[in-house]
Amino acid sequence: MLTVEFDRLGLTPGARVLDVGCGGGRHLRETRRHRGITAVGIDLGAQEVADTSRALREMDELAPELGGTVEGAGPWLSTRGSGYGLPFRSGSFDCVIISEVLEHLERDEEALREVSRVLKPGGVLAVSVPREGPESVCWTLSSQYPNSPGGHIRIYRGDQLPKMLERGGYDIVGTHYAHALHSPYWWLKCLFGLENEQVWPVKLYHQFLVWDLMQRPWVTQTLEAMLNPMIGKSVVFYAVKGNA
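Structure (tokenized):
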């Protein structure tokens, strides 16, 4: 399930991509379908780094026609680290992805400055956060949702994030919404309790999402594309770092 659209990143063989807060490696897996891309994932969690490494190794063992790594794919690395102090030289990467991370961080602008440090001038930043409208519904339905350990600590309202990117010296070159079909799932979880996975509305909707993820039928793909402008759970910005 990709949030970032890779055809917007302008990746060419030889490019170096960093995924900050890589989680289980969903975006790094996509880099294995591109030739000549060096991919690095970093996350604070040991389990997330282990999951990413396992997923990438599994892809490397599969034939491309079975969804595995393409011939000529570049090297990869999954490592632990903090977004406040990335262990890389300045200007090391052509592209940085930071997807669904900033809303968890107390010092989001500090993390963005550190991301900018390791991104070369003219490089592409892809950043996504929960969208204001659907996220506000979650906060309204559940007091637990914004107060869970490691949960979301802010809602990015209006042009707050674009302004932060512009202050950081970025030119925004594109934006879109994603994952509209996931918004109702989180609303149901907030309504019935975040830990109550077995209540039938939540359980059935989760089964629907898994089916959609595995089968990718045109009907749900079309429906999500239509709903994304209205209830897309995430908003994604693509920005180019200036030379200053």
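The first helix runs from residue 26 to 31. The chain has a mean pLDDT of 95.
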